[in-house]
Specification:
This protein starts with 10 loop residues before the first helix and ends with a helix. The protein has helices at residues 11-31, 40-50, 54-70, 76-95, 101-109, 131-146, 153-168, 173-194, 198-221, 236-244, 258-265, 280-289, 295-301, 321-327, 360-375, 380-392, 396-410; strands spanning 250-253, 304-309, 332-338, 341-346. The model has no long low-confidence stretch (mean pLDDT 87). The longest helix is centred in the middle third of the chain and has 24 residues, at 198-221. The protein is mainly α. The protein has a four-stranded mixed β-sheet, sandwiched between helices. Among the domains are: 1-113; 236-362, no CATH class. Helix 16 (380-392) runs antiparallel to helix 17.
Amino acid sequence: MIEPRINFRPETFLYLLLAVEIFLLENYLRHRKLSWLIPLPFLAWLLSQIHPSAIFLIDVFGMYSLHAILSTTANKFRNAAELGVIALAMAMGAVLNPYGLKQLLLPFYFQNDALLSSLTEFLPVLQTEYAPRFIAIAVIGSIAILLNPKRRLVDFMLACSFAILALKFARNTALLGIVMFVPIRNALEYWVGKISGMAARRLVMLCSVVAGIAGVAATGIGPSWGAGIWEENTPYKSAALIRKYDVQGNILNFFHLGNYLAWNLDRPVFVDGRNYENNRAVQLHDAIFRGDQGWQEVIYRFNIQAIVTPATLDYSGEIIPLVAALENDPDWVLVGQEKAGLLFLKNPVQEGVRTLPKNIIWRQAIEELNNTMALNPESKETYRSLATAYGHLGDDAKQAYFSRKFSALSN
């Protein structure tokens, strides 16, 4: 596995609101009452405040609308007009957010981002460990659609669309599971209705319930239930030390660590996953971690008292300049180390704070770089960084070895 996620985001709201939307649309198809559609613009607005994925709600609404128009024989024009008004209202609601239209269209901006190749969520699902789940959902859903005599156009459209999305990006597998629920339920309802005898029907329903409970239980027992503590991306030890030492002032964190720190500590952090735009916070973040001239003044201005950061960039393999600068900066002490990164506190620290030798910085870098090298062996900077790290630790042989590797890749 490469990186499961660049950071943790509130996609649970997308899953929840997509399920609510499908519930409303199914009732609209059943009763043909416009009142079932009234909440949809609000759902699109709500999701756009939380996560840039309201476009999925609009797409699903479009598929249901096409099915609704083609499956009725009366008042087609009126139905189309009503559905068009709802679609327009959903789009207008979705753009009523701080980032406007770009928030709605953000999923399309990821198409040509080179960073995506380093993240499992943006890899084709068949190239990831989630391939068996995708295959199971696709096969069971396809069987349910094909074996149900009451086939519906919307089921085919949803299944094909979200299967293609999941084949392209593994992150869409969950969405495929959600849209497959209705056709699977409809197929079960149809075939159970064909079974003669109340006892046989109860047996089938009991088996279905048992299978569902067993599936949930098996998932809950396994390590994949919830995000949990993902040590490479969850600075839980640093958070505990910040709380233990009652760090006052502000926290400077590397971008992808902000979500967990803000949640765990319940306090503001420098940046988190909501700062995707190139705003002032991101600009300052980049300038400080690059070690640009004047970075100390920025830290002083914002009263930074703690820094949580990895030692290297996990895709390129470059050593983070700020971390190298902190090694020889007496104003900062190293107090924590974990897989997710390092914790520095502003000097002088209070009595009782246990400090660590700063050569741990380079051991941390080597551990991170070995992971990067395994995943991206063609990264030249990884070998140069390893040479630098071993040089700081006094291992001349390994420094020379990785210097030669860097030179060979550079030629």
